[in-house]
Amino acid sequence: MKDHHQLDSALADQAQWLKLYYFARAGFSVAWVAAAFAIGQSSAPVAGALLIAYPAWDAAANWLDALRSGGLSQNRTQALNVLVSLATTVAVILALQVSMNWVLGVFGAWAILSGLLQLGTAIRRWRRFGAQWAMALSGGQSALAGGFFIAQAAMPTAPSITNVAGYAGVGALYFLVSAIWLTVSAWRRGARRAQLG
């Protein structure tokens, strides 16, 4: 009975962490999109800094989530996502020296890889936590968006940071939905326990 209670407590702590994590991811993405539209469109240096910061933040967020969820060795999809996002950060820095078409192509490749890895993480967590359907959809849609980015990058028209901002905005929505879903699920479990106890 004690072991069962400890397991329930550990799962509740992990669900609480995921809720905070998803809210933080949503908040960052909303702030990033707002900055992209408000400043990034008119300032190339700011746009460049934002484009570098986006995959760098993703690497840091995945690293922290993996550490809080048993370590990198137990969360291989996230460990790979950290490496992919760090490599993308470097690739964006280099691509900015060439053109925005190259930058969008890099983002396209990253969206495909990170989306598939996020999908893998969601599937792995599906049995233990709710709200993973939104993360699975987000990962799948990210991979599709990546293909669209690569197609856009091959066109002669130079893209801008707003091309990426739309993608980031959709990602923010998925993280927000996941956070709210976990919040409601926790509230319902607490209400059921109160009725039983």
TrEMBL record:
Protein origin, superkingdom: Bacteria
Q: Where are the transmembrane segments?
A: 20-40, 46-67, 79-96, 102-121, 133-155, 167-187
Which UniProt key words apply to this protein? Membrane, Transmembrane, Transmembrane helix
Q: Answer yes or no on keyword Transmembrane helix.
A: yes
Q: Give the protein name, as stated in the record.
A: DUF308 domain-containing protein
